[in-house]
Amino acid sequence: MPLPDIKHDILPIENDIVRTIFCIRTLFYVSASCRNRCYEPLDVDSASCRCDSQCVETHSCCFDYQDICLLPTQSWECTALRCGERRLSGSRCHCSEDCMNAGDCCSNYNSICEGEFSQWVQDECVDMSTAKCPAR
């Protein structure tokens, strides 16, 4: 029996395995996140984690429940996870795509979600290591 040709016989199988693993991991990540799922009714047919207030009691919260669903009600800032979020009624400010039109973006929306930096951040810092008294 001849040995398999590695280029043609084995690599296609490995590529299929890698593609399958990637698809499964992507599917798991999407269903295991609270992104755009906060406080949705429980889907009993779904085996995914939960994003409602009951999940804490049942220990079934998604890994990002705190950051995606609770943090917006306690913080005035965007995080990378919040950019493009669906509006939550209890949020202090928003990181949704329409927050500029609504006028309720978090203070750091432009820098975190749009990648813009204000001029003062780019200015050089003043050396404060030695005390300098004003001239008399």
Supply the key terms.
136 residues; mainly alpha; Factor Xa Inhibitor
Characterization of the model:
The chain is an all-alpha fold. The protein contains 6 helices and no strands. It has a domain at 32-117: Irregular (Factor Xa Inhibitor). The chain is elongated, with a radius of gyration of 24 Å. Mean pLDDT is 77; it is low at 20-30. It is found in: Secreted.
Number of helices: 6
CATH topology of the domain at 32-117: Factor Xa Inhibitor
In angstroms, what is the radius of gyration? 24 Å
Helix content: 25-40%
| CATH C-level label of the domain at 32-117 | Few Secondary Structures
Give the termini distance in whole angstroms.
98 Å
Beta content: under 5%
- Main beta-sheet strand count, sense and barrel state: none
Give the gist of this structure:
This protein has 136 residues and is mostly helical.
SSE diagram, text form:
Blueprint: H1 6-31, H2 55-58, H3 65-70, H4 99-102, H5 109-113, H6 119-122
GO biological process, one term: immune response
InterPro entries: SMB_chordata (IPR020436), Somatomedin_B-like_dom_sf (IPR036024), Somatomedin_B_dom (IPR001212)
GO cellular component, one term: extracellular region
